[in-house]
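re: that complex we talked abt at group meeting.

here r the seqs, copy pasted straight from the sheet so there may be weird spacing, ignore it
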Amino acid sequence: MLKIQNLTKIYTGGVQALTDVTFDVPQGQFLAVIGLSGSGKSTLLRCINRLIEPTSGKVFWHDQDVTDASDDELRRIRRKIGMVFQHFNLVHRSPVLTNVLAGRLGYVNPAWSLVNRFPKSDNENAFKQMERVGIADKAHHRADELSGGQQQRVGIARAMMQNPEMILADEPVASLDPVLAHSIMQYLEKINKEDGMTVLCSLHFLDLVHRYADRVVALNQGRLMFDGSPKDIDDAKFKDIYGREAERVG
Amino acid sequence: MKNRKSDPFRSLKVGIGVLLVLVVYAYGFQVTKVNLGETKSENRQQQLFRILRALAHPSIFEYEKDVFEVRVPVMIPCPEGGFEPDPIADKTQPHMVVTPACSDVRTNVHVEGFNFEPLTRGPLNLIPFESGVNLQLANIQIDRFGHFETTILLPNRPGEEAHELVAITRRNIGSPYLTQTAYDTWDKIIETVFMALLATTLGTIIAIPLSFIASRNLMKDVKSSLLGMSLSILLIPIGLYLGFQIADWSSRISQIFTGSVMLALPGAVTTPLVVWFGLRWALPQQEVQVPSAGVRAARMVVLLVASFLFIIMLYLVSFLMLTWGSTLEKTLGNFGFLGRFIRDLGDILNTVIRIFVGLGCAGAFSSLAARWGEGLSRRRDMLSRVSHHVLAFVAGAMLAIILMAIVNWFYQFRDINVYLAYAGGIGALFGLFASLLYKSTDAVPSGMIIYYVSRTIFNALRSIEALVMAIVFVVWVGIGPFAGVMALGLHTIVSLAKLYSEQVESIMAGPLEAIQATGANRLQTIMYAVIPQIIPPYISYTMYRWDINVRMSTIIGFVGGGGIGFLLQQNINLLNYRAASAQMLAIAIVVASMDYISSVLREKYV
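got the structure back, here u go
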């Protein structure tokens, strides 16, 4: 479904964020990406839908080359890939409903977006998605009036509005407390198990990885260090991923 | 802590520095002609006091006045045998006594008055014999008992006959009424406030879209191939020309209907409906599948017809506004200005349709061309490589020729064709150079080029004060507030565009990224991620600008730009300080209340 081949990203200024990363993601998998801060997890996720332009290498989405897609093709690819962010990235001053509806922007005609019109079916779908994550009563509140956990649910509802085939989650629980973190992860798990959605999720905590992920890829300084089942991360592998001085906690 | 040793060089440097500063300030005194002697001169000080007192009495209210005149003869100098004025006939009447009744020039005499109207005041003038000139010698103030006493210095006006001393005292009667100055000031200050309002509105509307193309964070991701860029540059003039043609055709077609209101009205009502249904069909709200080529072509045709009808409708609307506006102006009496407003709006609409259709057509052509170019460059075949070089060559030549033509418009060279040929050649070489520098598949940062060009233009125009711009506009549209509105409007556009774009640059990047990730295109990203974030700073900057415009429009009249400045300058030149004071007071009140209102509104909405 998603193939990443020899992906390399060098930022202007010479920082090498990704070096020759290659792996495949089959449909329906819950794949965790782990690594230290600055190891290139966010860059990897953003290169997949070209929020960041990769320097070299290829990304194939259903055998279509994403790195070579035209603007129109990219729009069609992006709308099939939902994205959830560490800092939720909601538009604070807009109502929750508008934030959720924004997930449809890849489908609606830009001319109608100028006058802020969405089809009726999208409105109904938006309320369905908000109900699913339990925030339907907040539909007309401003997004910044919500708590962190609620904001992340809006983020998930927005991603789900895209009717995606895959979710990219960039440390979705790093800014949340442990209880909320589990509730958000459970949503993602539910989507993965019930809808058969592919989930690509970068995570900090290994216990979350063990609990939710089918498979793990690990990055260290932009290089792929590990690709396999979470169970296979032993102490030696752990030190490969997190460095010699690292200690396991929890 | 380190042990600080005294460093002779350091002390020397400080000493030289202080000396240099002293020299700089000394030269500054010299250049600015600082002259304290002048400020201490008696004469100057008296003039200053006179003006300050006049300024403290703004000419706003006036009273009907009773005027009382009392005369007494005085001789300068004493004739031989002395001078004895006629005795006062009736001592119960107001009268003055001068002691002595004659004296030399530049000597003091004592003047005393009796039985005047109590509590009046006025000047004590000397009218030299048969001259008709009034020389004011003193101001007198009558006490409660109708008495005054003063000493005057006789001026250098020797004469054979007796001069006359006249005391003119006035008393206010009735209630105060507004002076003509007050009425004029009111008229002009209203004009001033509305000048500021119009300039701010105009500036804001135009500055908002401009601010997006002048913000780095939105433009740095805009990239296109050199091929697409060249093609879109080439098609801009063609689009512009076609747009003007279309506008002219539609204007002519609309004239079939504008024969009478009976025809124009149904036309203006039905076309929007047709256009609306056309748009609804041609722009489906969303589509999941890529439509077939046939459907896309059909939609294109419907869109073209719809836009053509829309332009005709605009012409019809402007015609109706012109007709009805003129009728209303005649029938509404005092509210005729509403009719005039409608008529003027129709007129403005009529003028801008052509411009907008031209620009719109050019924009549509160039964006279509960019798409085609992008498609062509992605083919990576011989055709794309050849056209990559050829189009860059031609586009470079065309750009240079257009630039040269603009330069020629200013300087009017004699052998322009030679200049154009040279410019075209150089431009073509630059184009070719660029096409060799970039491969046909490379992405050229076209957004940043637009960013730098627009920033440069904004900064250049912003550095020209509105007052200077007004001089140009006065030449164009004549003396009056319209020139002021244009000048302030232009300055508002460029400075707001810059301020706004800095706000766009400081928005949070997260939401932008999230909206882009949903597949939103550039327009949608601006609508859903940028605009919600910039509303508060935009409101606040617009208020601030209105504030500035009110203050600017008070002085733009100095160069003929209308508003209260014209009146103020006139009165200052006529030395009519009391009237000028009324105008300054009006400005102060308006500026202070604007300040207050904008701070309240800002608190409320931001």
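couple things i noticed - Strands of chain A lie at 2-10, 16-25, 30-34, 56-61, 64-65, 81-84, 166-170, 198-202, 215-220, 223-228. Chain A has a mean pLDDT of 90.
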